[in-house]
Design goal:
single chain; two-stranded antiparallel ribbon; three-stranded antiparallel β-sheet; flat; 225 residues; 7 strands; alpha+beta
Length: 225
C-alpha cells in the first residue's frame, strides 16, 4: 500500500499520522460484512441451523450493526525489509514445516495437524507426497496479484510517480535460481573454497550384511570386487 496516490499529474501524500482511518475502516467492514450475510441469506446461499429462523438472524444483524466493532490494525513498520519478511512467510512458507513431521519409519510419515498442531496423523509415504504436491502451484500460476499503481496496466502511472518523487525507473529483477538465493552457503558449495560442487559419480545404497550395514573394511572389499 503506497503512502499516497496520483491525482491527475500530481502526487498527493498521505497524512503522516496514519495511512488508513481507523474509524472509517471499522464502520465500512461492519457494514459490508452484514450486507454480504443478508445477501447470502436472500439468495439461499446461507443455510441456517434448524432452531434459527431468518427473522432471528435479521434481528441479530440489526443488533450487531448498532455495536462498535474492533478492527485490528498493526503499527507501521519502520523499514521495508520487515514487510517483505512478514509477507514472505505467508507466500513461500511451504505446506508443512519440518518440526511438524514427527517420524518417518517403515514407509509411513507421522506428522502434527489440526488446531495448534496437537493432533497426529500417519500416512503412507505416497499419500503424504500426494498431499504435499497438491500445494505446489502449476507453472505460470499467479500467486501474488497487484492492484492500483502496482497493477501491470498502471505501469505508466507508477513510473510517473517515481519520477515526481525523484526515484529511478523501476527495473525488473532477473531470474534467480535457488543456488544464488543461498548466497554461496548452500550444500552444493565447497565449504573451503566456496565453488560449486560437480556431481561426478553416484553411489548405490550400501548393502546389508547379516549383522547390519557393511563396515568400512567390508565396503572396500565389496567395491574391489
Amino acid at each position: 500500500v503506497t503512502g499516497g496516490g496520483l491525482r491527475g499529474d500530481h502526487w498527493i501524500s498521505a497524512s503522516k499520522r496514519f495511512l488508513i482511518p481507523f474509524r472509517v475502516v471499522r464502520a465500512k467492514f461492519r457494514g459490508k460484512l452484514i450486507a454480504f450475510i443478508r445477501t447470502a441469506l436472500e439468495n439461499g446461499e446461507l443455510v441456517l441451523p434448524v432452531e434459527t429462523s431468518p427473522q432471528q438472524l435479521h434481528n441479530l444483524l440489526n443488533k450487531l450493526g448498532r455495536k462498535p466493532w474492533n478492527v485490528h490494525l498493526r503499527e507501521t513498520y519502520s523499514h521495508g525489509r520487515g514487510v517483505l519478511i512478514y509477507l514472505a512467510r505467508y507466500l513461500r512458507g511451504g505446506p508443512i514445516s519440518n518440526r511438524r513431521i514427527i517420524r518417518i519409519k517403515d514407509g509411513n510419515v507421522t506428522f502434527r495437524y489440526g488446531r495448534k498442531n496437537k493432533a497426529f496423523m500417519t500416512l503412507p509415504m505416497g499419500s503424504f507426497i500426494g498431499r504435499y504436491l497438491q500445494h505446489v502451484p502449476q507453472p505460470n500460476t499467479v500467486m501474488v496479484r497487484s492492484y492500483g499503481l502496482y497493477h501491470h496496466s498502471g505501469r505508466k502511472q507508477l513510473e510517473r510517480c517515481r519520477d515526481i518523487l525523484g526515484q529511478p525507473p523501476l527495473k525488473e529483477p532477473g531470474f534467480l535460481d535457488w543456488q544464488t538465493l543461498w548466497q554461496g552457503q548452500g550444500p552444493e558449495r565447497c565449504p573451503v573454497c566456496g565453488k560449486r560442487l560437480l556431481c561426478l559419480e553416484t553411489f548405490a545404497p550400501l548393502k546389508k550384511s547379516a549383522t547390519g550395514y557393511l563396515n568400512a573394511e567390508e565396503l572396500r572389499h565389496a567395491k574391489a570386487a
